[in-house]
Predict the structure.
Amino acid sequence: MSSIEQKKIVCDIAIIGGGIAGLWLLNRLANQGFNVILFEKNSLGGDQTVASQGMIHGGMKYTLNGALTGASEAISEMPSYWQKCIDGEGEVDLKGAKKLSNHFYMWSSKSILSKMTTFLASKAIRGRINKVRGDALPNIFQDRQFRGNVYKLLDMVLDVPSVVEKLAKNYSNRIFMVDWGKTSWQKDANKKAFLNFNENEKKYVLHAEQFILTAGEGNESILNAMGESTPRMQRRPLHMLMVKHGYPHSFYGHCLGAETTPRLTISSHPCQDHKQVWYLGGSIAEKGVGLSTEAIITKAKKELFALMPWVDLKDAEWAALPIERAEPKQRNFNRPDKAFAGITKNHSNVIVAWPTKLTLCPNLADEIVFLLDKGNIRKSKTQLPELSFLDKPKISITPWKRVFGD
Ligand SMILES: Cc1cc2nc3c(=O)[nH]c(=O)nc-3n(C[C@H](O)[C@H](O)[C@H](O)COP(=O)(O)OP(=O)(O)OC[C@H]3O[C@@H](n4cnc5c(N)ncnc54)[C@H](O)[C@@H]3O)c2cc1C
């Protein structure tokens, strides 16, 4: 009869999911001295993170109806928080991570923006947003055909893969690949979750004072596997567009329409061959859910032509990307206005978290630090667990690299 060797391993905190939320949290908690490790099932920066537009909003996008909402209050400190981290002076070290731009724009026809003028001029956002005209307009609007108002926001755009890489590099010794075919959840008599890893003839049992689920959309199936039904998740589907072209100007900004969601959002991502990819979101991506690739590309071509008829994209290559944002469930499918971290019902040591926006990861980490404190989770003097039997995950590549290559 073959006997399976069993080894107990321990840590203070185990994070499940290595998108921006998990990686940010790993850095923050490791900096605080916790014995913390992270498990990723595919590649770091997985699903949503590397598919994001990388815009670090200070909240202006959420004030389109002229009111400073809960969303804009929670978010308004975020650009300066991220900047400190990039300068190497924040709670998380992002020194070396790249930015694509130090600002982005909002533009629209006169009538739409004039509704907001009073608000835009108000004290709440003074100094962070300026109207630009003439030579100060971005190159893309230096065309005689352009009509409209342009505002410049001092909110940055991140080169997201470089941020993921930096966060992963800071603590690569604490990041591991998890294969759920060989790993399972269990619960002890005190309702504490623990993990079983089955490796050939060996079984490893990982006990963590706290598990934190930051698996984005994957949180839902983890909760199902654990027999939990709350906290609940909602999916916000999008149909993004990618257009690779040789038009020389990059652009980062929102075109405002009559609704609270921007009519079109453009971010630009440089390629190795000196071309660039414009990544298109906003209302077109929300309303285009369910359309065929061909139909949404046709719609996007028309929209770009309507807004920027002078931009020549004749030789461009087009692709579409259906993708979902994972958010904590809200009444009436509203947009959550803060990062979310909550506890499960049937386990005493599991936190579930969704940042809801890349921008809000620092806010999410604050919420989790608060919950850890409340749960009396303390730093132990234990060594990092020995997990060398597990592989190391790679960094995800962006959707446009996957489609167009470098
Ligand atoms: C098209 C788009 C554009 C966006 N643009 C912006 C923007 O400009 N600005 C902004 O602030 N926000 C933006 N967002 C939102 C932002 O991208 C997300 O809020 C954020 O990336 C979510 O990060 P996350 O780590 O929670 O999830 P994810 O990035 O989805 O990462 C989850 C990770 O968990 C892993 N995982 C899943 N299941 C398991 C499991 N069972 N075990 C282990 N690991 C698991 C996945 O492989 C993945 O690596 C955008 C989102 C989308 C979709």
In short: The chain has ten helices and 20 strands. The chain has a mean pLDDT of 92.
